[in-house]
Specification:
Radius of gyration of chain B: 23 Å
Mean pLDDT of chain A: 93
Structural class of chain A: mainly alpha
Oligomer: heterodimer
Shape of chain A: globular
Strand content of chain A: under 5%
Strand order of the largest sheet of chain B: 1-2
Distance between the termini of chain B: 64 Å
Helix content of chain A: over 70%
Helix content of chain B: over 70%
Largest interface: A-B, 65 and 75 residues
Structural class of chain B: mainly alpha
Distance between the termini of chain A: 46 Å
Strand order of the largest sheet of chain A: 1-2
Number of helices of chain B: 14
Low-confidence stretches of chain A: none
Number of domains of chain A: 1
Number of domains of chain B: 1
Order of helices and strands of chain B: HHHHEEHHHHEEEHEHHHEEHH
Number of helices of chain A: 13
Number of strands of chain B: 8
Strand content of chain B: 5-15%
Mean pLDDT of chain B: 92
Shape of chain B: globular
Order of helices and strands of chain A: HHHHHHHHHHHHEEH
């Protein structure tokens, strides 16, 4: 029971991380296409300025929770995915410092260096997280000793790449919608047209991915076993359709929430299908790491559950307060604020 | 090099680099919060401008501290998977608690503090930087509790082929953890105090913003003095705890080869690890080591030869790092005392001001040396007495680590250069002109 609760919490942490940092990644990836001048680039930075750091902590917490609740999974997952994970971390490092460093020197070259860091620091994690999770859904070639029988290119199989493209598209739409929420005028118009245009390939890739999952993975077994789980992919599908509806109505907040639901639904579609596996082995199911064979002791799980049940709601409350406090649009005149990025 | 050596080297690079930024974050967040509180209380514009000035340096430094911390958390999984499997039940929960309890607060409210100058009331805004400062320090507490458990594992049992938690309270409240926490944050506060003193000194020498930098200097010198004095006392207690719990580390710190009662200390000593003796020993003070370690001049202190060779840490690195740390710690007491007595007309002491500028790097060296003593001195154990570092490593291919290690070094060097360049630039630029003078 404790293991199952932690399995769900594990999924929640990852899903919320992708929902929140997803739009940061989206805005980073859209930067070269949407911003026409430095003012617009700065508006894009400041649209996520007060939030991105808090969003990224969900990743640290997801990692920490994996370590605390499922140490064997943490150990084997992170060491078998050594190269992609370190590439993601390096990308997140250059993205993180670009916010703080970019505006600190009056030089176009300096600024374009950090713009470049923001862009690659957004596209690489978006793509590789998608690739990594798709491969986890499919199973990773590792043996009983946790030794990985493959390399970075093993992960770049068609299904893995489909997962990567799905994540990139999800985050692009999500980021574009956040810009619609946070900006006005010309930039907002461009963002909304990008969101509308990208929605179509997103729909196509999402359908392909769902169908491909039936062939490439075992995810659907749980859905046939517990039909109530179909609610999860339904949330993703309805969220995606509503996203388009609200884009048409120019209800940006609603569109963004619908897109959030889509991301949560997509991640949970995979997580629910995985259960009880956390990290399945494609070599032999007996090597697979599950919520049961890789869990911490009941005492640790209990202590951590208390911490999570007390702290996560508190975190959600104060983080929501921050979103509420900085809900206004970022305007040109806001850029003269001394501390603006 | 094998995967153990490579993984160790990578972890050393990542953690020593991380710790170039962490101490200033821990200390300068508090100093910035103090300046902002003084502004709220007195309404003195100098303090507001001081808050913004030191806050800007804090943020430049903070950025790199945070992003390099993430790789450390994940490296336990990537490079030390056998360790993570074996002790994750105890160790993992401490890292997870750090994230949920402290890191979230720190990151979320830092954003509010940066963007909230006009959105929040003065008091609420000052509260934000206090939350950031306290959360950063609470974050350090959990990380150091985790490290203390590697130094002195308690509250667990070996069951199901791994270490399982049995007594959470004991893990969190053990003496080693408390001492290590106090030791580390005091070192950080000294660093921040000397940083603020040094930068203030640079401006005071140029008669730039004398009023603002005198105020900054006064707060910083008191802060540095309190913690430099405290560190002296606390360091002694911490070393006694090491003597109790980690005899091999203590012996390496002191380069003590033979087990002795009335163990002496020397004013000057050069170890000769190859021949298991000291090459030079000058100025013997009988019984001092026994006294410092066990509060008793006749206590027996175990020498390195009492342990099998494979269980001893590298002596030279541990010994010299310890000497550097203690020597610098003593210097910090003297310098902050000197600064304290002349704080009211510090601008008239150019000699001290020049000295303080030159001293900015010293607490950095002391902090890093301290970590070398703690981590190298613990070898060959990853968890003292329980698990060897050589058993802890992930089953990786050496090439993978070589590539990632090169990437770490290149990326960190570039970012470190950029960060120090910005710190220099903004430290020298000084505070923004106040609205009054701008007009």
């Amino acid at each position: 029971m404790l293991e199952t609760i932690w399995f769900i919490l594990w999924g929640v942490l990852w899903a919320v991380y992708f929902m929140l940092d997803g739009f940061d990644f989206g805005i980073g990836m859209l930067m070269p296409f949407l911003a026409k001048n430095d003012t617009e680039r700065r508006i894009m930075y400041n649209a996520i300025g007060p939030f991105w750091d808090g969003n990224e902590v969900w990743l640290i917490t997801a990692g920490g929770a994996t370590f605390a609740a499922f140490p064997t999974t943490y150990a084997v997952m992170f060491s078998t995915l050594y190269t992609p994970l370190l590439i993601i971390l390096f990308a997140l490092i250059v993205r993180g410092v670009s916010f703080e460093f970019r505006g600190k020197v009056e030089s176009a070259t300096w600024r374009s260096i950090w713009d470049f860091c923001l862009i690659i620091g957004s596209v690489i994690p978006a793509l590789l997280f998608g690739v990594a999770f798709a491969n986890i859904f499919k199973g990773i070639p590792f043996d009983g000793k946790g030794i990985f029988h493959g390399n970075l290119f093993t992960l770049l199989n068609p299904y893995g790449i489909a997962g990567g493209i799905l994540f990139v598209l999800l985050f692009l739409v999500h980021g574009a919608l956040w810009l619609c929420v946070k900006t006005e005028g010309d930039l907002q118009k461009r963002a909304s047209s990008v969101a509308a245009k990208l929605w179509i390939p997103l729909l196509i890739v999402a359908v392909i991915f769902l169908a491909y999952s039936y062939k490439a993975t075992n995810l659907y077994a749980n859905y046939f076993k517990w039909p109530v789980l179909w609610v999860i992919p339904l949330v993703a599908v309805v969220g995606l359709l509503l996203t388009r509806l609200f884009i048409a109505k120019k209800s940006w907040w609603k569109a963004w929430f619908a897109s959030s639901a889509t991301i949560l639904g997509c991640v949970f579609f995979g997580v629910a299908g995985l259960y009880p596996n956390l990290f399945p082995s494609s070599l032999d199911p007996k090597y697979s790491l599950t919520a049961f064979n890789s869990a911490s002791s009941p005492l640790t799980l209990k202590i951590m559950l208390v911490v999570a049940l007390v702290m996560v709601p508190i975190i959600i409350i104060y983080q929501s307060w921050v979103y509420y406090t900085f809900r206004d649009k970022v305007r040109k005149e806001d850029l003269s604020y001394e501390e603006a990025y | 090099m094998d995967i153990v050596a490579l993984s160790r080297l990578q972890f050393a690079v990542a953690s020593l680099f991380h710790f170039l930024f962490v101490p200033l974050t821990l200390g300068l967040s508090i100093l910035t919060a103090i300046f902002e509180t003084l502004y709220v209380k007195t309404g003195d514009e100098d303090y507001k401008r001081a808050t913004k000035f030191w806050g800007k340096l804090f943020l430049i430094n903070f950025a790199l501290g945070v992003v390099t911390g993430i790789t450390l958390e994940f490296q336990f999984g990537t490079n030390w998977s056998e360790y993570s499997k074996y002790v994750g039940d105890v160790f993992g929960s401490l890292l997870a608690i750090e994230a949920t309890l402290a890191f979230f607060l720190e990151s979320v409210f830092l954003g509010v503090w940066i963007f909230g100058w006009e959105k929040l009331s003065k008091k609420a805004h000052a509260l934000c930087i206090w939350i950031v400062a306290i959360a950063s320090n609470v974050s350090a507490l959990w990380i150091l509790v985790a490290n203390a458990w590697m130094q002195h594992p308690v509250g667990y049992v070996i069951r199901n082929g791994r270490a399982e938690l049995t007594d959470f309270t004991r893990v969190v409240t053990q003496k080693f953890a408390i001492l290590e926490f106090l030791h580390t944050i005091s070192g950080a506060y000294i660093l921040a105090g000397f940083f603020v003193m040094g930068v203030s000194a640079w401006h005071l020498l140029r008669k730039n913003e004398v009023s603002l930098f005198k105020k900054s200097f006064k707060v910083a010198v008191i802060f540095a003095l309190i913690f430099a004095l405290f560190e002296g006392l606390e360091g002694h207690m911490h070393a006694s705890e090491v003597a109790e719990t980690q005899p091999t580390k203590l012996a390496a710190m002191e380069s003590l080869w033979n087990t002795e009662s009335h163990a002496p200390m020397y004013l000057f000593l050069i170890p000769d690890a190859k021949h298991e003796r000291n090459a030079i020993e000058i100025g013997k003070i009988p019984g001092l080591l026994s006294f410092l370690a066990f509060d008793n001049t006749s206590a027996t202190v175990k020498g390195l030869k009492a342990f099998p060779k494979e269980d001893r840490p590298p002596v030279d690195l541990t010994f010299w790092s310890f000497r550097i740390m203690v020597g610098l710690g003593t210097l910090f007491i003297l310098l902050s005392l000197w600064g304290f007595f002349v704080r009211n007309n510090i601008e008239n002491h150019p000699g001290l001001l020049k000295l303080l500028i030159l001293c900015i790097p010293l607490p950095y060296i002391a902090n890093e040396a301290g970590w070398i003593v703690a981590e190298v001195g613990r070898q060959p154990w990853i968890v003292y007495g329980m698990m060897k570092t050589s058993q802890a490593v992930s089953p990786l291919i050496p090439t993978q680590i070589v590539i990632s290690l090169i990437a770490f070094v290149v990326l960190y060097s570039l970012l470190g250069l950029a960060d120090f360049f910005l710190l220099f630039k903004y430290a020298r630029k000084g505070p923004e002109a106040s609205m009054a003078t701008a007009k």
